[in-house]
User: What shape does this take?
Amino acid sequence: MSFTLSAADFLSVLPESILFAMGMVVLVFEMFGTGRDTRNLAYLSLLSLLVSGFALHRLAGRGITGFGGSITADPFAIVLGMIFLLVVALIVLVSIRYLHDRGVGHGEYYALLLFACGGMMLMVSSTDLLTIFIGLEILSISSYVLCGLIQGDLRSNESALKYFLLGAFATGFLLYGMVLLYGATGSIRLPEIAAAVNRSEVRGNPMIWYGLGLILVGFGFKIALVPFHMWTPDVYEGAPTPVTAFLSSAPKAAGFGALIRILTEGLGALTPEWSQVLWVVAALTMTVGNALALQQDNIKRMLAYSSIAHAGYILVALVAGGRDSLGGVLFYLLAYAFMNSGAFAVLILASSPVRERVTFEDYRGYGYVEPALALAMVVFMLSLTGIPLTAGFAGKFQIFKSAIDKGYVWLAVIGLLNSVVSVYYYLRMIVVMYMQRPTAEHPPERVVPSVPLYVAVAASALGVLYLGVFPAGWLELSVRSVTSLLAGG
Amino acid sequence: MIPVTHVLVLSAALFAIGVSGVILRRNAIVVFMSVELMLNAVNVAFVGFAYGLNSMTGIMFVLFVLVVAATEAVVGLAIMLAIFRNRGTLNIDEFNLLRW
Assistant: This one.
């Protein structure tokens, strides 16, 4: 048996390879950097994200597959890859001042972000359980370290430990699910699994059901679906704020991407069964996420629970299935990336090492002190609620409309009721900023200006408004890019 | 000839021991050892299936799982070392700065 690599193999992983290589370059620069100003490393990271995005763009439409079909550069992988690159670029922008102020300006921060981004791109371009697992682990291991980045901070330590233990636990379940699928179907390639599952003697094998169940548990932990969401608020609250912004959008998008690929390309024949399970999980995730978000006073924690609720909305689309719904997933993931990163960027801009502004109380009367910043926050909150003319509305509309078209009326009703509930805690932010007087112990202060942070806030706000006013272009691209996924499966 | 079923029973038993260890034990290192036990249960199952199916894929998967488990151990123990230096304990019940 000979083993040779062709040019197509290298091309198929070129965007990821650029990120991994540049991550190492950043590490080396950190080591030899005498100026100790890590801000330059941030711009180097942005450049490598840009180059990787260019490579990814050039792969579009060529249908390259590499490594014997384990890696594919199909439109689904490319569109999701672009979302990851965009999120990580926003996170790099919001991190620069945060790290500099707190004296943890380590080059390894940016290296880890680049590694995590490469891992996510590998995850969604894999059509093989092994490469999905490797991508997931590159992402997870980088994230564990990112959470614990502030070594002297007890909360950051605790967040890292909790994330690590529960993440590793989830990996165990995911792997056991994979081994059972391998045992039942005799392959780890998704197309071969799909072919095997179509045979009735394979489908009669109970191992395949246990395998499916364990894979859902494993991903349930990773993308924080109820009842596997318990770690989320703790980890998100304790982690450094830019890391929280990262964790709550990009890895979830990657988890959904890989889950969609496994469920449609590999186990498409079992759709009636898994969609029933996910129906219940989606309803629970939306309801529990929103119910717990209502009670929070800490905005980071509130956004953590709201990210659980948003995962529930995305799951509705996964349950409904079909190209319109799955296209809606991609649309929603980008919309959520903008509004979530934007909201966190405002929190980071308003905070300083002396005073973290993370509770609602801290923002009393903020609308009169920082009108532009408060206005941007209003845009993000309205979009998270799903008010028309924002990206959140367009995404929810697409998801719930396609769910109703597919006959999942009750699920859509539960989703809409939950959106109504979420109005309470998103609008609370706006009420606090504009309708309450500041108190003596929470005096509002003007922020210290920072160009990269302003760029991040402005880019997110423009993204939210653009997707809200002109959703058609991106929606069409999303729907088109999932078509290949469904045709192949 | 050992039937594949025997291997699978062993693997399932190891996995169950690992899961109960994670849930019941309170020391972070012991919890992590239980997670490692779960991963090794997966390896045993992969070897068993590879043997039963007469395919090399399972064996190859085991090598990757081993590498990932090793990197997880590196990162995990580093996190535990950092937390032990700051807190002087690894009892997970005492990590309650963040409400559950």
